[in-house]
Task: structure prediction
Amino acid sequence: MNRKIALVAFAFAFATQSAGAVEIKVLTAGAFKQVLLAVVPDYEKQTGNTVKIENDTVGALVKRIEGGDAFDVVVVSPAAVDDLAKKGKVAADSHTNLAKVGVGVVVKEGAARPDIGSVEAFKRALIAAKSVAYIDPASGGSSGIFVDRLLDKLGIAGDVKPKAKLIPGGAVADHVANGEAEIGIHQISEILPVKGAVLVGPLPAEIQNYTIYAAGLAAASKEAEAGKALIKLLAGPGAAAVLSAKGMQPAQ
Result:
């Protein structure tokens, strides 16, 4: 684990340990899950606290929270954090931007990698593919909503949507790796950890879309100090190396 992250976590250890070890629950959008999985073990070691991580699409997490699901920290889009704050679910002063991630194309390991070096090449690759997987826009996933609109914008919705494999949640790359779809489009941080799948590359710059992820502390959290410490760790300079390794960048 990055030494800077360990040092930052250690700075908060005394505050949490003095009150006794606690458990905090983190609800996160799938794109940020790998960062949490990398950082949390060090946080737990240094503080004595434990972290329970649950992931889903942004839309699904918002519905869960609005429905009364208990949590301590949530990682979703900045707009969702602000909306939850307005509804009294997230502490108004806790909004913290953490990272941003772009969208990429994935194929099965060993398959030919299509040319996506230009917008026209990307369009040809999607039209030529037998099937294209992406997150179902109806599920509230950020990348799925973007891809759905992008297909319309590029004028290829009629060619691609009839053969689309819409994924309700989780990693699109899983469905490409097991052969359900020939090509997939998803956030890069959700492609990299999937075995049997290969990142072809990011979308061309002209049509690239970066999704920012932000954290918020539950207004009703009973473990506010532990939650604040985790958020500060995730937003700190020491987390930059982890973000890069997981296909993300600092939000700023």
Remarks:
- The chain has a mean pLDDT of 92.
- The domain at 3-100+212-250 is CATH 3.40.190.10 (D-Maltodextrin-Binding Protein; domain 2).
- The longest helix spans residues 30-47.
